[in-house]
Amino acid sequence: MNPTVLLLAVYCPAIFVAAILGGRLSVLGALTHTRTQVIMSLVAGFILGIALFHLLPHGMELMPGLEKIEHGMLWTALGIIFMVALQRIFRFHQHDFSSEAQALQESQGPSHAAVGARSVAGIAFGLTVHTITEGIALGASMQERVHATAIAAMPGLGVFLAILLHKPLDAYSILSVMRSAGYERGTCNIVNIAFALLCPLVALGVFWLGTQLAPAGGGELAGYALCFAAGVFLCVALSDVLPEIHFHTHDRFKLIIVFLVGIGLAYALHFVEAGALHDHSHGHSHRH
Q1: Is the CB of residue 172 less than 8 Å from the CB of residue 90?
Q2: Phi and psi, residue 95, nearest 5°
Q3: N or C: which end of the chain has fewer CB within 10 A?
Q4: Which tens digit of pLDDT belongs to each residue from 160-191?
């Protein structure tokens, strides 16, 4: 079996389990404000690093022509615009449901009304589209190295880890909102399972489609998808961090440090993948 397919067989169940566990957190009780912000800062830094050090350069490498940088930045900007519009319309990217966060929302005025079915539907739709984008990013990041011999580089590892770390927060968000709206436990469990399955299924579908289109320019399509996903990841990362910076001054140094740790981990992962690629290619050249 193709080693890349074996990696997907590991990545997809892991993402599913992470989303299920994130949904369960809404039953066990809300995280404290400080713990939530520490987790969000770490994950945001990591996602930001994955966008800059993994998705964007890999996407540009796959684009044809001399203007690949301009095209790559254009598709990255489109990803940012798409995500900003999505969040403006559906206002779904909320992870902090602590008492401190609720008090802040109430102090901002009547715009933060009680959660109803319409609000849940909007949040569910926004997170669904966001999850589909993540699945496309994972499938495309796997596809862009299917033709490479450097299996040791573990294609898609950085994107997988970014999704794995962020997916529990998304599941926690949608299940917390549903419980606040009074949905029954059975309905919440069904939504949790469906949401957990979505990203893996999209990733598998994009990977399969890419293998079918590879002879007809599938690599170029993967390049555009990766740059677009980079814009989405950038917007997601900054939307997790910037509101906290604007409204709060507590734990500023702690949150800055964990944010930098997240970026550093993504940067280190870039060198791990590059080192594995170099070592494998070097060994392959010696065998020939």
Answers
A1: no
A2: -110, -20
A3: C
A4: 999 999 898 888 888 888 888 888 889 999 99
* Cα separation, 264 vs 267, whole angstroms: 5
In sequence order, what DSSP letters do the residues of 166-183 get, joined into one string? HHHHHHHHHHHHHHHTT-
CA gap 142, 160 in Å, rounded: 10
Supply 267's token pair. Answer: 């940067």
Task: Report the alpha-carbon distance of residue 120 to residue 173 in Å, rounded.
Answer: 10
pLDDT digits (tens, 9 = 90+) for 24-80: 876 665 566 777 788 888 999 999 999 999 899 989 988 888 888 999 999 999 999
AA identity, residue 147? H
pLDDT digits (tens, 9 = 90+) for 71-114: 999 999 999 999 999 888 877 656 555 555 555 555 554 444 45
- Single pTM value for the model: 0.81
SS3 at position 47: helix
Amino acid identity of residue 240, one-letter, is D
Residue/partner pairs of 4-13 with CB below 8 Å, 24 or more apart = 4/142, 4/145, 4/146, 4/151, 4/155, 4/207, 7/142, 7/154, 7/155, 7/156, 8/142, 8/156, 8/203, 8/204, 8/207, 11/138, 11/156, 11/160, 11/200, 11/203, 12/200, 12/203, 12/204, 13/200
